[in-house]
C-alpha cells in the first residue's frame, strides 16, 4: 500500500492522481476540516481517505498499517508572523513522528522539502544540492520549518531510514487555482503594473509528481534533489503570463526600496484584518534576488526531461480564462 500525506494540497493531489493513473490504489491522509480536491473526486474507488494530522502520532501509526511506501507532502504554510514558531514546531515535530514510524515499520519515504531549504550560491554560480541554508541568518519561518523538517529526515537516514528528499522550486499548474502560485497568475490578470529584477526557478506540478514517483521506484536513498524546470526572471514570467491572458504586461520596475515599503504596508494591514499579508518581508526581498538552480543531478539520476515552462503557463492561463 502507498500512503500520500498532504493529499488535499496542490502537489499532494497531483501526486495522488499520478499514482492512480499508473494503476495504483492508494491511501491518503486528510484533516477533518479538509475537502477532497476536485482533481481527485473522480477516483473514490482508488483512494482510501483517512483522517490523520501529522501531529497525531497515533493516527499516523494507524494510517501506516500495511503501507510500504510514503510520499510526505504535508506541511503547514503561513505568512503570518504569529504563525512562525507554531508552524516550525508543527512541521518539524510532525515530520519527526513520520520518520520514526517509517523507521520502525521499514517503510520507504520520499519527503517533500523545498528550495527554500537550500542555501545560496556565490554570485554567478548555480545553486546545487550541496548548498545548505544557514538557519542563523534566515528569518523566513517557512524556510526554517522546511530546513529543520528535512534535517529530521536526514536524522532518520543516519539511523537507517530508506528515504530520498526532493526540493522543488516554485510549482505551477492549472490545479493550483487561485491559491499559492496561482496568485501570481491572478495578480497579473487583474493588472500588475510592477515587476522586480529577481530570478527564480519554476516547475510544472506534474513534473514534480513524476520525479517523486521515479525516485521512489529507483531505490535511490540518502540523497536530495532540486526539482526545477527553468530559471526565469520575474519580469519575463510576468510578461509571458500577461501576453497569454491578453492583458498589459507590467512595465514599471519595483525597486528594493519600494518592496520594503510594500511588505511593511501589507504587514500592517494584515495585523488589522487578521488575514495573511499579500506579501511578507522575505518574499519582498527575495523578489529582487537572483536564484538560479542546477538540475543536472535529477536529470542524471532518473533521465528526466522537464516540460517546457511556456507550455505550463499556457495551460494555467487557459484554466483561468474558462
Automatic annotation (TrEMBL):
SUPFAM superfamilies: NAD(P)-binding Rossmann-fold domains (SSF51735)
Any one GO CC term of the record: cytoplasm
A GO molecular function held by the record: aldehyde dehydrogenase (NAD+) activity
Annotated signal peptide: none
Pfam families found in the cross-reference section: Epimerase
Gene3D superfamilies found in the cross-reference section: NAD(P)-binding Rossmann-like Domain
Superkingdom, taxonomy of origin: Bacteria
InterPro entries tied to this protein: Epimerase_deHydtase (IPR001509), NAD(P)-bd_dom_sf (IPR036291), NAD(P)-dependent_oxidoreduct (IPR051783)
NAD-dependent epimerase/dehydratase domain boundaries: 2-227
PANTHER family the UniProt entry points to: NAD(P)-BINDING DOMAIN-CONTAINING PROTEIN-RELATED, PROTEIN YEEZ
Name of the featured protein: NAD-dependent epimerase/dehydratase family protein
Organism of this sequence: Mucilaginibacter psychrotolerans
Amino acid at each position: 500500500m502507498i500512503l500520500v500525506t498532504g493529499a488535499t494540497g496542490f502537489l499532494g493531489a497531483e501526486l495522488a492522481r499520478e499514482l492512480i493513473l499508473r494503476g495504483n490504489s492508494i491511501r491518503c491522509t486528510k484533516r477533518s476540516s479538509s475537502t477532497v480536491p476536485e482533481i481527485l473526486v473522480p477516483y473514490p474507488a482508488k483512494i482510501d481517505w483517512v483522517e490523520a494530522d501529522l501531529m497525531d502520532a497515533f493516527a499516523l501509526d494507524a494510517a501506516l498499517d500495511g503501507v510500504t511506501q510514503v510520499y510526505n507532502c504535508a506541511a503547514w504554510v503561513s505568512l503570518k508572523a504569529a504563525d512562525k514558531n507554531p508552524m516550525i514546531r508543527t512541521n518539524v515535530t510532525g515530520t519527526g513522528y513520520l520518520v520514526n514510524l517509517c523507521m520502525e515499520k521499514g517503510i520507504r519515504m520520499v519527503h517533500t522539502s523545498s528550495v527554500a531549504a537550500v542555501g545560496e550560491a556565490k554570485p554567478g554560480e548555480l545553486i546545487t544540492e550541496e548548498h545548505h541554508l544557514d538557519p542563523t541568518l534566515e528569518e523566513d519561518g517557512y524556510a526554517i520549518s522546511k530546513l529543520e523538517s528535512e534535517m529530521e529526515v536526514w536524522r532518520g537516514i543516519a539511523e537507517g531510514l530508506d528515504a530520498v528528499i526532493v526540493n522543488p522550486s516554485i510549482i505551477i499548474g492549472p490545479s493550483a487555482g487561485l491559491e499559492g502560485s496561482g496568485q501570481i497568475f491572478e495578480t497579473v490578470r487583474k493588472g500588475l503594473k510592477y515587476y522586480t529584477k529577481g530570478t527564480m526557478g519554476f516547475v510544472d506540478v506534474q513534473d514534480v509528481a513524476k520525479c517523486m514517483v521515479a525516485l521512489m521506484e529507483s531505490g535511490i536513498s540518502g540523497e536530495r534533489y532540486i526539482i526545477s524546470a527553468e530559471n526565469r526572471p520575474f519580469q519575463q514570467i510576468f510578461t509571458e503570463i500577461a501576453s497569454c491572458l491578453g492583458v498589459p504586461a507590467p512595465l514599471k520596475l519595483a525597486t528594493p526600496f519600494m518592496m520594503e515599503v510594500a511588505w511593511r504596508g501589507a504587514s500592517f494591514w494584515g495585523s488589522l484584518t487578521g488575514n495573511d499579508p499579500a506579501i511578507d518581508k522575505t518574499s519582498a526581498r527575495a523578489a529582487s534576488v537572483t536564484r538560479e538552480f542546477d538540475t543536472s543531478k535529477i536529470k542524471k539520476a532518473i533521465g528526466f526531461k522537464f516540460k517546457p515552462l511556456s507550455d505550463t503557463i499556457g495551460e494555467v492561463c487557459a484554466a483561468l480564462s474558462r
